[in-house]
Amino acid sequence: MNTNRIFSNIKIQFDSLLGFWRRYKKNRAAMLGLYIFLFFFSVAILSPILAPYDPFDMNLHDPDAPLNPPSSKNPLGTDAFGRDQLSRMMYGARTSLFIGFLSTGISLVIGVVLGSISGYFGGWVDGLIMRFVDIFMMLPTFFLILVIAAVFGSNIWNVMWIIGLTGWPSITRLIRGNFLTLKNMDFIIAVRGAGASDAYIIFREILPNAIYSAIVAASMRVSGAIMTEASLSFLGLGDPNAVSWGWLLNEAMRAFRIAWWLPLFPGLAITLIAIGFNLMGDGINDALNPHLKER
Q1: Where in the sequence is the domain holding 134, given as residue range(s)?
Q2: What is the pTM of this model?
Q3: Which of 17, 22, 189, 191 is most buried, taking the most CB atoms under 10 A from its CB?
Q4: Residues 188 and 206: beta-carbon distance below 8 Å
């Protein structure tokens, strides 16, 4: 009996995912965003294999290596130290996506937990959490990130945590709003009347129905986290021991008048990945829209 129930649940989840994919792939813009993401994700994963050179290898012994424009040997040119920009761009994708995904994951966990507690219990708990959210949202976030990075250091882990710990308020508001709507619906009242615990109602009944808007917000939040890291690195508060697109822009500013390729390709990559994640977020939102499911 339990086995049949497990297989039945698996089939329901599979059918739900299949329906989601069918709706998602109808959106051409969303598919373009997915292709952009898959391209950069593949480059990030395979960079140790695809990169033609060591990203830190300096060719100072070769007088023609520094600031060499794009050529067959170096398709994206070289920097002031003779390092291959294509290799550095590939490894930079790993750092930027790593920070983007993990910092967004931190924001998502904090936002979901606080939003669930606030929306479900209400009362003074809701008031306390939301006042804290309001205070946090009044702060100039990017300035706060700058101060924290300057005080605690700017290695890659600190940057990831700083961005993650400042990006949760909007997700908290979304989850709270969904909980306030769902907790008074008939099926929740029935489950509560059957004697289900608060934890069961929150995690098994309400959260699976309330999480979708947070997933959409998180998909767009990744691009925001990547751009925040790029801004920090551009201002010299990134990790100098890790190659990232933002750090490449920081280095490019020293020679951008004579080496146009140095700022062009990192800036283009940041722009494309931001567009890709936003297109994906719009596509996910459309695919999860209950009105579209009926079509």
Answers
A1: 32-55+70-293
A2: 0.85
A3: 191
A4: yes
